[in-house]
């Protein structure tokens, strides 16, 4: 009788244990099925007003509408977006903290910073690129050069100074590409952000500037800066009269900024896939496309998260070669 009681009790405990294990093992699946159930934070590693911030704030409302929750833009600037990206790397891999990154922190900084706190290829999972925009080469109107060829000729007679938003980022390396291709006396002048770099270009303290097209659009349309080339393979729709760098005789000066959404490594695949589908739907919505186009930003999505991973690797290799050839460093 006692033996029978013990056997029954043990069988009962075993059954309870199995149920407990089953409950624990199904919790992640249930969490993924119910995702998202609270607001999502989209981290931007740059201050408000820059290209990353502009893209994030255009996407966030529509993305939240599609996902059925609010998407909050969370600016955490510093060190060319390394601070904000590192914050995302260290966040829980549950889909509630993502980042709107770009070429500089994700593909360039690993080559221009000596002590990166993370590896973008290992510590983040890419969801998709969402948009792209070229860099714009613009001059102060007092500079005696109206074309890229005239700028090259001028740079071979005197120093031509170009401001950027800081050391080690995409605009910096675009200036280095221009220096290499032109074989001229191009001098990089780094600033702490696009704002002061633009102010000094407009004020004539430097001869010109290279940064993302959206940041310069207003200054060019108002005549405060003269656009001479976009660093892309095709002209920008909002500046169809501005030739490409290839049309200007410097086809190797190719630098476009892409914007991408990343999540912490180990974020569950079902959550990554859900974010991917929602982001593609967001970017392809007519109102978002129209808002991006007005600023010179084009939709740019990947066929899949796996395709984005391959794109990231290729961009990391390409910008590594440029950084090594130019010696461009952030520190």
Describe the structure.
This protein has 331 residues and is an alpha/beta fold. 48% of the residues lie in helices and 19% in strands. The protein folds into 2 domains: 40-133 and 257-326, D-Maltodextrin-Binding Protein, domain 2, CATH 3.40.190; 134-230, Periplasmic binding protein-like II (D-Maltodextrin-Binding Protein, domain 2, 3-Layer(aba) Sandwich). Helix 4 (103-112) crosses helix 12 and helix 7 (170-182) crosses helix 12. The longest helix has 33 residues, at 2-34. The radius of gyration is 24 Å and the shape is globular. Mean pLDDT is 89; it is low at 1-10 and 12-28. Belongs to the UPF0065 (bug) family. Keywords: Signal. InterPro entries: BUG (IPR005064), Bug_dom1 (IPR042100). It comes from Bordetella flabilis.
Report the helical percentage.
40-55%
Shape: globular
> Helical segment tally?
12
Q: Could you tell me the radius of gyration in angstroms?
A: 24 Å
Structural class assignment: alpha/beta
Q: Please give the CATH class of the largest domain.
A: Alpha Beta
- Determine the strand fraction and express it as a percent band: 15-25%
**What profile does the largest beta sheet have?**
10 strands, mixed
CATH architecture of the largest domain: 3-Layer(aba) Sandwich
Mean of all residue-level pLDDT scores: 89
Order of helices and strands: HEHEHEHHEHEHEHEHEEHHEH
Family: Belongs to the UPF0065 (bug) family.
Protein name: ABC transporter substrate-binding protein
Pfam families: TctC
Keywords: Signal
Question: SSE layout and pairings?
Answer:
Blueprint: H1 2-34, E1 40-44, H2 51-67, E2 71-75, H3 82-89, E3 97-102, H4 103-112, H5 120-123, E4 124-139, H6 148-155, E5 160-164, H7 170-182, E6 186-190, H8 194-203, E7 208-212, H9 213-221, E8 226-230, E9 256-264, H10 269-284, H11 286-294, E10 298-299, H12 305-326
Parallel strand pairs: 1-2, 1-3, 5-6, 5-7
Antiparallel strand pairs: 3-9, 4-7, 4-8, 4-9, 4-10
Helix pairs in contact: 2-10, 4-12, 7-12
């Amino acid at each position: 009788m006692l033996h029978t009681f013990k056997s029954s009790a043990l069988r009962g405990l075993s059954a309870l244990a199995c149920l407990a294990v089953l409950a624990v093992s199904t919790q992640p699946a249930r969490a993924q099925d119910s995702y998202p159930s609270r607001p999502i934070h989209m981290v931007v590693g740059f201050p408000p007003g820059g290209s990353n911030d502009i893209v994030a704030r255009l996407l966030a409302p529509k993305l939240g509408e599609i996902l059925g929750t609010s998407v909050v833009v969370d600016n955490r600037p510093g060190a060319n977006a390394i601070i904000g990206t590192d914050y995302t790397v260290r966040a829980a891999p549950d889909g509630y903290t993502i980042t709107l990154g770009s070429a500089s922190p994700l593909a360039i900084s690993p080559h221009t910073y000596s002590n990166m706190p993370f590896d973008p290829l290992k510590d983040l999972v890419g969801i998709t690129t969402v948009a792209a925009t070229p860099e714009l080469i613009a001059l102060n109107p007092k500079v005696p050069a109206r074309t890229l060829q005239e700028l090259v000729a001028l740079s071979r007679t005197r120093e031509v100074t170009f401001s950027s938003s800081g050391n080690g980022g995409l605009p910096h390396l675009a200036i280095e590409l221009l220096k290499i291709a032109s074989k001229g006396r191009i001098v990089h002048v780094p600033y702490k952000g696009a704002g002061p770099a633009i102010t000094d270009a407009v004020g004539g303290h430097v001869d010109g500037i290279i940064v993302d097209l959206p940041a310069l659009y207003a200054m060019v349309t108002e005549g405060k800066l003269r656009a001479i080339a976009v660093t892309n393979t095709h002209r920008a729709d909002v500046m169809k009269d501005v030739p490409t760098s290839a049309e200007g005789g410097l086809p190797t000066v190719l630098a476009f900024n892409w914007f991408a959404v990343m999540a912490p490594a180990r974020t569950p695949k079902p959550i990554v896939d859900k974010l991917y589908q929602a982001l593609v739907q967001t970017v392809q919505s007519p109102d978002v496309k129209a808002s991006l186009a007005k600023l010179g930003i084009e939709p740019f999505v990947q066929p899949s998260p796996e395709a984005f991973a391959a794109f990231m690797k290729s961009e990391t290799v390409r910008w590594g070669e440029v950084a090594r050839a130019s010696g461009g460093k952030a520190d």
